[in-house]
Design a protein that fits this description.
Length: about 260
């Protein structure tokens, strides 16, 4: 097999959560550009993402679901719907995530519980359901989690987000330890500060934005398209011996 053929995803099926906009949309479209058919999931409209995928000649199935309603039952139903509609499942991208900002002394119960439910609990249950399906299919599979540069540091006024993203990186390693012998690759991508709705308030606050931007060696905010290469690599046969890694896509943030 030629080297570049190892990056192709023709005939594969991916499931991407939080795919209605921003990073998730770019991840889903990037997988389709590499040849995958894609199930996309979000609580918001998926029309724009679906149109971009189908214009590439790939099949796309949409699932509107609120991941605050998570658990083993809903996760199994999501994986089952994906496979019944597109025939199989080979790649799971756990992208869905939210952030709430407040000082730790004032941080509310709902802001803690909602972030933990979406950023960590839904990732866990979907990973478990996907891994069970991979084993049933007998072909292995790929799980790609969205960590963060805050998987490596504590951040400021985002305690639930920092806690969950630290947990995502360590859960990625824990699952890789167990599932690598089963032919399942579990890895993560750690973005820094990207131009998305999640960071809009931060980027519009000059007092916060200027020092953040000054720390990024690349000298710019990340764009969602900057993640396409990493997700295609981790989803492909080219990454068959990559297990338990958290790959920064951060403009050099962690190198400073």
């Amino acid at each position: 097999m030629a080297l570049l053929d190892g990056f192709r995803l023709d005939g594969r099926v991916a499931l991407v959560t939080g795919a209605g906009r921003g990073l998730g949309q770019a991840l889903a479209v990037g997988l389709a550009e590499a040849g995958a058919d894609v199930t996309i999931l979000d609580v918001i409209s998926l029309d724009e993402t679906r149109d971009q995928i189908t214009q590439l000649g790939r099949r796309c199935h949409t699932i509107n679901h609120d991941l605050l309603k998570t658990g083993p039952g809903p996760a199994a139903q999501i994986v089952g719907e994906c496979t019944s509609e597109l025939g199989r499942l080979d790649i799971l991208v756990n992208n869905a995530g939210i952030i709430r900002r407040a000082p730790a002394l004032e941080f509310g119960e709902e802001d803690w519980e909602d972030v933990v439910t979406i950023n960590l609990n839904s990732l866990w249950y979907l990973s478990q359901a996907a891994a069970r399906r991979f084993i049933e299919q007998g072909r292995g599979g790929k799980i790609i989690n969205l960590a963060s540069v805050l998987s490596f540091s504590g951040g400021i006024v985002v305690p639930s987000y920092a806690a969950t993203k630290g947990a995502v990186a360590n859960l990625t390693r824990a699952l890789a330890n167990e599932w690598a012998p089963l032919g399942i690759n579990v890895n993560a991508i750690a973005p820094s500060y990207f131009s998305t709705s999640m960071t809009s308030a931060l980027r519009e606050d000059a007092e916060r934005a200027e020092p953040l931007l000054a720390r990024i060696p690349a000298g710019r905010w990340g764009e969602p398209e900057d993640l396409k290469g990493a997700v295609v690599f981790l989803a492909s046969d080219a990454a068959s011996y990559v297990h338990g890694a958290t790959i920064p896509v951060d403009g050099g943030w962690l190198a400073r």
